[in-house]
Amino acid sequence: MLAALLRLAAGFPVVVLTGPRQSGKTTLARHAFPSKPYVSLENPSEREFAMSDPIGFLGRFPAGAVIDEVQRVPDLMSWIQGIVDEQSVMGQFVLTGSQQFDLVAGITQSLAGRAGRLELLPLSVAELNASGNLADDLETNLFRGGYPALYGRDVSVEEWLGNYLATYVERDVPQLLKVRDLSTFHRFVAMCAARSGQLLNLTALGSDCGISTPTAREWLSVLEASYVVSLVAPLNANVTTRLSKSPRLFFLDSGLMSFLLGIRDPQTHVTHISRGPVFETWVTSEIVKQGFNDARRTSLGFLRDKRGREVDLTLEGGQDLVLIEVKSGRTFACDWIAPIRQWREDLMKGGDVRVSPVVMYGGDESTMSEGVRLMSWRDLVTGVIGPD
After folding, report:
1. What is the secondary structure of 240-260 as a DSSP string?
2. 0.85 exceeded by the pTM?
């Protein structure tokens, strides 16, 4: 991630670093640019200064600055545009923000072609391993998730995630939506956690929460913009069978998902009914993180036809297509590979695509079986899932 940030700063006058609150954006920006002045627009006096006198506010930083939570004053980006157009200095301003709506609008309207954008999710398996914080057992990693504070403070997972949910998800997001009934919104977030990994059905989701389908759609869009959830679209495959058109809903942190499911210790994951969905959510978020950390958008999808045949995840790269089946069990079972082998045959009838089948599972051994690559969850420390 640091290398990608410095690469963007060498090619753009503005770098925009986005991601959920407490994902480490400020720490990364200040570490990467220690000589730049730092200012946070969460500070009421700084925010008021930026809103009332943007020229005076930016005039304090003739060589640029790290400006935190810039979405609090989105009009500031128009003034930054004028400065960078006049001076043409690469990496002059580094902007961070915790939700995408105003940031994306500001980049599109004012900073198009001038800003390189990087998205920072909570710590990846590779980052946890490099820092010595990756647990040796799968259940602890699923339970804790990746928020940096859980690895740098003397605080329990339950206490920190409970406060995170109350402080950020239930404060920031409802402000955007003008939600008055916080209990209903909390139930909506919990229902999304319970559906992580499933096909999205907004009508059913709204009905279960006692809200309309349009309201469910609006609330979900803000959870997306705040990096709480992500939608994975089905692969547009060149096959004769009819494919599902609905996306799949995923949480972006297994720890937050586990907390919302009422899981309060790692061992509960051994036998919990949601072990499979939590593991699949964890693997999916890792693939997304690995793309973000290299400043690229991962071409992630899935396959499901009208008969219910499915492949959990697909990963595209040029002429390569990786079919990924995700299983939380520790012991390999032969029937795991049947769906992806069938889909590989169907997809390869289309011609040029090279299809590689992978099973990512909760065990410790990695091998090849009947042309399918069996990958342990531990292999995530080495990088993106892909063909040999």
Report:
1. SS-B--S-EEEES-HHHHHHH
2. yes
